[in-house]
Amino acid sequence: MSGMSAEIRKTIRAWGASADPELNQKTKSMYATLIDPPGGVIEAHDQAYGEDPRQKLDVYRVENGKSGKTIVVYIPGGGFTGGDKRQDPVFFGNVGRFFARQGFVGVCANYRLAPEFKWPASSQDVASAIAWIKANAARFGGDPKKVVVFGHSAGAAHVASYLFDPDIRGGEAVIAGILASGMYALRKGEVRANVAQYFGEDESTFERRSALTHVKDFKVPVFVALSEFDPPYLAAPAFEMARALTLRDRKSPPIVRLDDHNHFSSMCTFGTSDSSFSAPLLRFIAANGG
Q: The pTM is what?
């Protein structure tokens, strides 16, 4: 059992598939009181990995005398033009605290935003954040050779570009990647206005700027997730990514469809009794050396 209550299941199903900001707020309000309180975790907020005010990250850990811990880096969404690693006292500290309590070093990182900063700035920021984390891993009890990067929504798009872009080559720097409900390819007639603010509108650049184009060139293990009530334009790319990984590896990748979840509720489950997302992620990390 996932731990989702019948009331939450019924409410999410009634709301349907959307990624609108109003649904984001309603979903987080419903989950906020269900998440474990923050006690027992050491938190180091707003560590600067670059000079821009957005180039900051938060580190979460539990002091237990152990070192060499796997580091899980979470890159949040926000439609390419917004979003924040700590948008309120609950989210997304719930993600960092969850991984810290599971014996990892948890990290939540911001990145520069469109329209001021365009492709590939955000994925370059993922690279800079991970380079900083590796250089400072010992301070937090982490192992710089055991980093997992995890992105959701626009964050997943940036993580996919980080992993697979031939100029960034992040897949060579981490042990695994987790992609949840993101967009991984640009196609004529399918680029929404907020996406164009980051990737641009020049159709001649779409193939080069699509992470899906470059999957075959990098062997990094990848976990793919989507929610039942993701809108179609954020659900379909998960199956495209799974297909590309299947062709690359000659076997199917780990892929999870989160039943009864919408685009926002999946990330709200971390730190609650609903393990439908966290349990398979933990198995994936363990299977890949984490």
A: 0.97
